[in-house]
Structure formats: C-alpha cells, structure tokens
Amino acid sequence: MKAMCLADSRDSPKLVEAEVLQPQPGPGEVLVRVSAAGTIRTELSWYPTTHDKSGGLRLNAIPAHEFAGVVAALGEGVTDFTVGQHVYGMNDWYAEGALADYCLTTANAIAPAPITLSPTKAATVPISALTAWQGLFEHGQLHPGDRVLVHGAAGSVGLFAAQIAHLHGAYVVGTAAGHDTYFAKQLGIAQVIDYHTIRFEDVLQEPFDIVFDTVGGDLLLRSLPLLKPGGFAITVSSTHENSPDERIRKAFFIVQPNQRQLMEIAALIDTFKLRTWIKATLPFAQANDAYTASIPGHGKTVVMVDPAA
Predict the structure, then answer these.
(1) pLDDT digits (tens, 9 = 90+) for 216-259
(2) How far is CA 19 from CA 60, 95, 121, 232, in A?
(3) Which fold has domain 2-125+276-304?
C-alpha cells in the first residue's frame, strides 16, 4: 500500500511517499481503509513519532492518528463493526498512523462516523473533540452553571471545548489571538479576549470553576489565581508535562480513545448542536504541507488519502 513515512526524524523532519506492507488485523484489531486523515502540525517532532514504546529510535513512522474511513477487515473477537461500515476515530500514538491506504486500530478507538459529515470533515473531529470532552468532563468535572475559561478558544481543541461547555450549560469565556476573536464569538462564548493585546487577568474579576489551556506558555500559570477553591486547571500543552510546578504538571493530560464518547460526539454533530471546521484539504502528495506550511483558517488540515471517498 502507499504511505507517507518520516524520512528524517533528527534535523528536518520530512515525509516521503513509500510502498509498505499492508497491515493485517490481529485479535481485537480493526483494519480501516483510510479516506481522510486529520493532522496535528507538531506531530513529526513528538516522542512517539521518533521513538518506540521501549525508548528505541523509531524509523519511517507513518503519522496522523485520527481518520475517517471504511472498515476493511476485522480481527478475531471484534463484533461491534461490520466490513464496509463507515467509521471515524483514532489509533495509538506509537502505531503507524493514517497517512496510508490502511491503518490498524482497536474497536474501542473508533465509532460509526457522523452521517451528516463527509469523510474529510469527519477526520477533523476525533482527537480534538475527545480532548475537549475528556478535559471538561473527566478532568474538569463540568456541571451546568460552571464558569469556564478556555485559552485558545479558536484553535482545533479550543473550538470544541468552548462549544461543548456552552452546550452543557456553562458560562464560557475564551481567549484568542487577534483576528481569531471574531471566529471565537460564533462558538457560544459569552466574552472573548484578544490575548495579544489584553492581559486577561486584568479584565476578568469573577473566579472560574475550570481553566482549560490549549495554548501553553505562561497562560495557565497566570490563570491559577482566577480558579475557585477546588476548581480545575487543565492543559494539553506538552510543554507542561514536566513542569517544576506541581499544579501545572498535574493539570496536563493526554487524550485517550473512547468509543462511547465518539458516539456521543457524533450524535451532537448529527443533531447540528456541535460544529467542526476544515482549515484546509490537501491531496496525499502534498501531505508535507500539513506539517510545514503556515495555513490560515480554523479547524484542522486534512489530507485526502482516498480522493474517491
């Protein structure tokens, strides 16, 4: 099968098209014929892209771990899906990703794709929406009436966090950069602050139940005084994973696959309560641009693996 593989993970990461062996599903696994793959611009430099689980050097990794596609084959013991079914989801960070004709995943990591979305648009959802969902509900214990501050509300995770918090009855304040503030106002955010020109802590007085940081830098540290006693600080910025500040370090989490949550997210999308956006759509041959080019817009950049899908 065709795949985009990481040719050099040391100096200047670059993807090259290659012919690789098509994987076959083992027990509990699902083989997906990939229609479209969502991308995260920084992924080529991530530890799981350049190293295996034992810490050894990983060569020729295939990136992109969220996708929409069609079930091609089922491993032993998988009964939740049928061959030919349209699905969306993610796979393990250390596994070969979805910039290939086929990828392997597990039944718990995928769900029936939203029926109202094309495969291209569905590929923008799994990782970002799951990250927002898990951050708010599992790590933030979101309740109706909570006050929620979302940093980077116009970003690929922030746009879902803002919408989901608003849908569940929260009062949402968001920060965004410059021209992104107009977009953020479409997401159910009560107050949007341009963090390039205004220090949010200078204009926010009432405390928050949840602070959800999707940006990194010092935003979360500066937000801690705004938390209510017993409130929840959450971040998905990997720069905080080894922070010397225990409060910041404990706030960091990594998204996990979850079929039930993917199904709930799809239901919100199919009832037009939750929206997603495509920043750009690239042909397979231009997959490198998803990681190297500065592409304006909102949402995710998607690579079309199967143009006929």
Answers:
(1) 888 999 999 999 999 999 999 877 666 777 788 888 999 999 99
(2) 11, 17, 27, 47
(3) Quinone Oxidoreductase; Chain A, domain 1 (3.90.180)
pLDDT at 9 over 60: no
Calculate the alpha carbon distances from 153 to 190, 222, 286 in Å. 12, 17, 28
User: Which amino acid, one-letter code, is at 170?
Assistant: A
pLDDT tens-digit series, residues 149-190: 999 999 999 999 999 999 999 999 999 988 899 999 999 999
For the chain, which residues make up each domain, given as ranges?
Answer: 2-125+276-304, 128-251
Q: Is 128-251 a domain of CATH 3.40.50.720?
A: yes
User: Regarding beta strands 208-213 and 171-176, do their DSSP bridges make them parallel or antiparallel, or are they unpaired?
Assistant: unpaired
Residue whose token pair is 């996990």:
256
What Cα–Cα distance (Å) separates residue 46 from each residue in 5, 58, 214?
A: 14, 11, 17
